[in-house]
Amino acid sequence: MTPPRVAVIGGGIAGAAAAFYLAERADVVLLEAESTLAYHTTGRSAALLFESYGSQGIRPLTSASRAFLDNPPPGLADFPFLSPRGGMLVGGEQQTGALEQWEADAKRQGAWVELLDADKARQICSALRPEMLTGAVWEPGAADIDVAAVHQAFVRGARRWGAEIRVSSPVKAMEKTTGGWRLRVGDETLTAQVVVNAAGAWGDEVARMAGLGPMGITPMRRTVFMVPGHDDYRSWPLVASIEMGWYFKPDGVQLLCSLSEENPSPPCDARPEPIDIALAIERINQATTLGIRSVRSSWTGLRTFAPDREMVIGFDPRTEGFFWLVGQGGTGIQTSPGAGELTASLVLDSEVPTRLVDHGFDAAVVAPERFV
User: Fold this and answer.
1) Which of helix, strand or coil describes residue 206?
2) Is the pTM of this model over 0.85?
3) What are the φ/ψ torsions at residue 224 (nearest 5 degrees)?
4) How far apart are CA 160 and CA 246, in angstroms?
């Protein structure tokens, strides 16, 4: 039996994971518009595996992804993907309810978290100002992710299964045919039975090329920057406000910081705004004794969200053979194995893997039908 031809549009973490899981049983071509893979959001992620972070559909995919990230298939990884870090969400007196709600939601999903008082939180990160702190939610199992290594593992695995991976290959037009899709890629025409739209911030633009209405995907800017740190900081976890107004975490002897902003943006090669960096420094200095004064480097990525802040994963009900894999909302790295496995199973088998169901995943939560 001839394997189906699948065109994956987008070479970030979502597209690479989909290509990897599909390529074992399908004829896959991955198309990336830029000259390098993972140029945009994936390459600018401050990735942390944070199982208590995310929505109803995201948390189970994160939990289901941990097995791959802890123990990747043989031959795909030269180094471990994860390194211990821990994650701590902090708040003052007015945020006590939010901390308790986060803990309850996380435990309901099965994440290992603990509610701490101010003294215990300061034992973990001594820079927190006691007058600004009432308590914290502590996730000791949160871990740093080597994003480049995970992405390269998917690419390496996809190629071993025979996938064709093309860079500098923007899709310029798409046409529905009797047997699938005809795509104009540069000066060339390709055909595929299934198109997987993993184009991130450009997801709705790809849909428009296919003659479909948008899903309402909104790209949101988020800026990250590095400041001088100290050897004493190396053991600190990621520390974030429970209201997601700022965060910081050690990166070697530097600190990686962010305002955690979500400012709508058109799809673009985003660049930092000085005001976002200045506001982040002000908020972090108010909450801590770090006294940040200078910035060494900065960058900005676009995190994409559907209107209900859940991912969009599944076939579009308005036409045959068009599959959505967008709206990761900043969790695309930590959910990539689960989302890639789900994509391959829905495309090739029309079913949700039992392993994901066992983690509490409900495909209806992410299905495109909820918007069309």
Assistant:
1) helix
2) yes
3) -125, 145
4) 41
